[in-house]
Amino acid sequence: MLGDNILKVKDRIASVCAKNKLKSEEIILICVTKNRRPEDIEEAIAAGITDIGENRVQEALSKYNQLSAFSCQLSAVRWHLVGHLQTNKVKDAVHIFDLIHSVDSLRLAQEIDKQASRINKIQDILLEVKTSPEATKFGLKPDEVIEVIKEIAKLKNINLLGLMTIAPIVDNPQKSRPYFRQLRELRDKICNDFGFRISNLGFLSMGMTDDFEIALEEGANMIRLGRAIFGG
Q: Shortest CA distance to 97 belongs to which of 159, 26, 40, 13?
């Protein structure tokens, strides 16, 4: 069933890409495994998943250690932190994750840089931007992003690859469109106004199970799916 679900998701991605003249091979499908067993992750990897997303550092650390004892080839898997990151969890996070999506403050970026330097790692990150009016959402305000980018550029152990956002919960996926569009337009404006190449902020991580097709239409090239793959 898991393999069938993954194939269905990939077909939906391909359909959106065909209609909007996008390249489906450039879309990164992140399988979000919050509350899933290590065995479920191993099954997803066996079905062709190469990118695993986790919301919590401690849960990810436990699974990562357990999977290391399994037969699956972890070397071919990229680990993404897609949930909120507290500064006291950064040390563990930089040991596990290839890409941290949820950097929502300069202070957090500085701590990531500090911990990454201790293990001689260049940590890839995305900046999380709060495009939603929901009080429960994390992220930088759009008008804060450029100043944070300028400060991050001074940090030697961080590699900024793009932006991330989470749309609000809505009753119609189309209502998510303005939030995704805002992130893409913000990225493009930063690049146009400050001379960054768009390829330097090339990743837009946006879209989940209920709205990923809209996100793709608005420029997402990383989507974070859990229920669409595992059901429920």
A: 159
